Amino acid sequence: MDKDTRNNEIEASKDSEAETKATEQALVEEEQKFRAAPKLSRSPFHGLWALTNRDLRKWYTNPIQLFVSLIQPIIWLGLFGKALNFGSFIAGSGASVAQQDIILKNFFGTTSYFSFLSCGMLAFIVLFTSAFSGMSVVFDRRFGFLNKALSTPVARGSIVMGKILNSVGRSLIQAAIVLVVAVALGMDTSHFTVQGIAAAFLLIFLMAVGLSALFTMLALRSADWQTQMAIINLLNLPLLFASNALFPVKIMPTWLQDVVKVNPVSYAVDGIRQVLIGAIGMNSLWLDFAVVIGFAIILSAVGIVLSWKLLSK
């Protein structure tokens, strides 16, 4: 074998060895990457979305729960709203149609009590959905999930905001369904506009944030679902009946009118009626928005601050 052939074989052997080493090195690096721990996302929004989506998934994958949560406001609309016909009461006194409209307009701000009640039912569904945002905290504590969440880098404020956003999302979806049902049953739509509907759902969003924050922070240290249910029953009905959701403020006793004026639910309902059915409000629309915005911001801030102090394993 001549010298050139031998040199070529030696060079080919060296190239093969180098290629083999490069392949082995690439396999080692790939295995190291595969075995390396994944990088954790430290963005506060990542943990917030994970917690919110977890609670929402439990809800939207259970259609029976959604159906049951809508039964009560629909019954109120279909039975109470239609049975309590104030126009018939007034007509029974001998008043003409024009006089009926004047009287209804004076008391309800609109000539249709059903439309008046329908706007109140939007607040009704938000109030009762928000009330159970605290129950989720109680059950997470009882079943050990809260301890696991507190062991992660997720901020305590994100745990609270996750519960709030879950309740807000559910409230908006359920309020939209109730509004569709109300329209199907005869709610006045002559004042409906895109801007008005958007403003109404902005008010619903803000009210849901404030109420969800309230009930969530009341449950931060609770591990007993019966205690939390007692708190819900203690607050829900007064917030509903001491508001203008079902009846106008004018027909209430003076002392109750004072309570209605400090109830944030009243301002949300008043604004919703103004933008959806053109009802004469007890306040200006700007005041309604200002009160509801302040309520949402203050309660959310208080809930986050309390989570730093009260959330523990």
Please describe what this structure looks like:
The mean pLDDT is 79. By secondary structure, the protein is an all-alpha fold. The protein has one domain. The longest helix has 33 residues, at 3-35. It is elongated and about 105 Å long. It has helices at 3-35, 44-60, 63-83, 86-91, 97-108, 113-131, 133-142, 145-150, 156-185, 194-218, 225-241, 254-260, 264-277, 285-310. The chain has 14 helices and no strands.
Which secondary structure elements does this structure contain, and how are they paired or packed?
Blueprint: H1 3-35, H2 44-60, H3 63-83, H4 86-91, H5 97-108, H6 113-131, H7 133-142, H8 145-150, H9 156-185, H10 194-218, H11 225-241, H12 254-260, H13 264-277, H14 285-310
- How do the helices and strands follow one another from N- to C-terminus? HHHHHHHHHHHHHH
| Helicity, as a percent range | over 70%
Query: Tell me, what's the shape?
Result: elongated
What is the overall number of helices?
14
Instruction: Please tell me how large the radius of gyration is.
Output: 30 Å
Report the strand count: 0
User: What fraction strand?
Assistant: under 5%
Poorly predicted ranges: none
Question: On the 0-100 scale, what is the average pLDDT?
Answer: 79
Q: How many structural domains can be distinguished in the coordinates?
A: 1
- Biggest sheet details: none
Amino- and carboxy-terminal Cα gap = 80 Å
Class per helix and strand makeup: mainly alpha
